[in-house]
Amino acid sequence: MTLKGKTALVTGSTSGIGLGIALSLARQGANLVLNGFGDVEGAKAAVAALGVQVAYHGADMGKPAEIEAMMAHAAATFDGVDILVNNAGIQHVANIDEFPVERWDAIIAINLSSAFHTTRLALPGMKARNWGRIINLASVHGLVASAAKSAYVAAKHGLVGFTKTTALEVATSGITVNAICPGWVLTPLVQKQVDARAARDGISDAKARESLLGEKQPSLEFTTPEQLGELAVFLCSAAAANVRGQAWAVDGGWTAQ
Ligand code: NAD
Question: Which positions are annotated as active-site residues?
Answer without folding.
Answer: 152
